[in-house]
Amino acid sequence: MKTVTYNIYKDVNNHKGIENMAYNHESIQTTSGLPFRIFSFNEQNDGRFIPKHWHQSVEMIYCLSGQLKVWLITEEYILQKNDFMVINTNTVHATQGLKNSQVMIIQLPIQFLREVTFGKYPNEFVFQINSTLAKNDYDDVVLTYFKQMAICSRYLKEGHKTHELLMNLHVMSDIYALLAILCEHYADKTIAARRKLTFDRTRLIKVIDYLHDNFVNEITLASTANDFNFSTSYFSKFFQEGMGTSFTSYLRSIRLDAAFEKMMTSDSDLTTIAIDCGFESYRNFYNAFIVVYRVAPSEYRKMSKLM
Fold first, then answer.
1. Which of 22, 118, 166, 214 is most solvent-facing, going by the fewest CB within 10 Å?
2. pLDDT, tens digit (0-9, with 9 covering 90-100), for 22-44
3. What is d(CA 162, CA 182) in angstroms, rounded to the nearest whole number?
4. Cis ω on the peptide bond leading into residue 35 (within 30° of 0)?
C-alpha cells in the first residue's frame, strides 16, 4: 500500500507484529488516500513487547479480540475485547499483545488534528478516553465507529482495490464523526492535562537516540549523565519524568527487543545473542526475557518454530 510520510523525527524500524513502529519516537506514515494511518495486527501467542516510545500523533487503539497490555506513562492497562483508548500526542507508552489479540490502530498526525480543530488541540484541550476506566455515556457510540472502521481496515489490508475508494470515504466520514464526539464529550481542558504534554523533549530525544545507538556497549546511568553534562541524581529524575520508567529499565528493554529480533531471525545461540545485545551474561538476558514473556527464551524460540 502506498504511503506518504509525515517527516517528524526519523525513519521507523520494521518488525514482526506491528508495522513501522519505532521504539523511541516514531515517524507516522499515512494510509494511501487518507491524511492519517489505519492498520491492524494479530498476535497468535504472547506478542512482542514494544518498549516505551512516543510520537507526535494521537493514537487510537481498539481491541477487537484477545487482550492488549498498554503501559501509559506510569500506569498499566489491559484492554479486552471491545475496549478502546486514545493516547495523546507526545505521551510515552508501550504495548504487548496477549492471548490471540487482534487490534486496530489509528494514528492521527498532529498537523491533521490542528487543522480540523482550528488549532485548539492540544493547546486548549487533550483527550481523556479509556474504556477500561470510568465509563462515558457515549462509549457505545464510539465503539460503533471503531467497529465500522475495523471492517474498512480489513478490506484495505486485504488489498481490495475495487473497494479502496469507498472504504477510504467511509473511514474519513467515521473519523470526522468520531472526532466530533471526542471533542464534545471526551475533551479535558484542565491545565494539568495540558501540562502533561509540555515536557521539553529536546534533550531527552538526544539521550534516547544515544541509547539506541550504543546499547550494545557498556552504558551506565552515571556515564550517560556525565556524557550529557547532568549530575547523576538530576539525570535520574529527568529520565524518569520524561519516559515514565527508570534509566536502567529502559536500557534493559531496548536490549531485550534487539535480542528478541536476533533470536527470531537467526540461528545464533542465545548466549551469543545476549552478549551481542549488551547483556552482561545469558542469565541477565534470561531474567529480563522471562519477566516480559513469562517463558524461557529457548522455549519461546521453540514454540515460534512450531507455528
1. 118
2. 334 444 455 667 899 998 877 65
3. 32
4. no
